[in-house]
Write a structure and sequence with these properties.
The chain is an alpha/beta fold. The chain has nine helices and nine strands. Helix 6 (134-143) links the parallel strand 3 (123-127) and strand 4 (147-151). Helix 5 packs across helix 9 (228-248). The longest helix has 21 residues, at 228-248. It binds ligand L34. The site of ligand L34 has 19 residues, from helix 1, helix 5 and helix 9.
């Protein structure tokens, strides 16, 4: 579900609905006006909670300023919470109990696993501590027996810590924040950032990592676009199938 017309959200939600239809999941893109009230959105969530034909509910963030995202997330039936944002699912994740894991963090883990390198025992450094990326990525890495360091805006000598990382996850939200000198040779680098830059008057996507220079140093590195974004959508499809199977079990 999308409220309002944030241009990035329009692209992301369209990509999600398209992928769902490709896979035969009957994804419906519900679009509401920017002026929708919080009460109206909560009523809409309630309606979808009660609709037995609906297996997954996703309310795309950010929401317009009159709507408190926390209230909306809390209102979603945890069994239909395919984003894994409800406090019940967040709690389950941090306890290591099987639940609906948030899509971007699950995608990050899947990308790391695709290297074939074991996560166990590695030093993983996560830059960023948001509730939707940094914290859950750290929890998933810890569950897989990595030694996890979380860096953020108040971290002292962040570059030195990053350089110690066997696995570096960049989720800062600043274009090209991670430079080649911050990467340990042969490290696995996962770039979660999606920053919109204007280059020579044209819009261009850039990650949180300076890809060209970093790819000379890293052993593995994900591009932006074409990295974490599409994996986020893949994990959303997986969560939706899981939610559907559980509701019918
Ligand atoms: N509720 N809100 C909720 N759930 C989410 O999981 C998200 N997120 C983030 C923003 N808000 C959300 C997404 O879906 C970010 N995000 C997301 C999803 C897909 C893509 C990027 C971010 C994606 O498809 N990225 C393409 C490029 C798209 C473009 O051209 O802008 C890529 O190749 O990276």
């Amino acid at each position: 579900m999308r409220v309002g017309s944030d241009p990035a959200s329009e692209v992301y939600v369209r990509n999600k609905a398209k992928k769902a239809r490709e896979l035969g999941l009957e994804g419906t893109e519900l679009i509401h006006p920017e002026t929708m009230s919080e009460a109206e959105l909560l009523a809409e969530v309630e309606r979808l909670n009660r609709d037995d034909d609906v297996d997954g509910i996703l309310v795309q963030l950010p929401l317009p300023k009159q709507i408190d995202p926390m209230k909306v997330i809390d209102a979603i039936d945890p069994a239909k919470d395919v984003d894994g944002f409800h406090p019940i699912n967040v709690g389950m994740l941090h306890l290591g109990r099987p639940s609906l894991a948030p899509c971007t963090p699950a995608g990050v883990i899947r990308l790391i696993e695709s290297t074939g390198q074991p996560i166990e025992g590695k030093h993983a450094v996560v830059i960023g501590r948001s509730d939707i990326v940094g914290k859950p990525v750290a929890a998933l890495l810890l569950q897989r027996h990595a030694t996890v360091t979380i860096c953020h805006s108040r971290t002292r000598d962040l570059a030195a810590i990053a350089r110690e990382a066997d696995v570096l996850v960049a989720a800062i939200g600043k274009a090209r924040f991670v430079t080649a000198d911050m990467i340990k040779p042969s490290a696995i680098v996962i770039d979660v950032g999606i920053n919109r830059l204007i280059v020579d008057g044209a819009g261009k996507l850039a990650g949180d990592v300076d890809f060209n220079a970093a790819s000379e140093v890293a052993g593995w590195i994900t591009p932006v676009p074409g990295g974490v974004g599409p994996m986020t959508i893949a994990m959303l499809m997986k969560n939706t199938v899981t939610a559907a199977e559980r509701r019918r079990a």
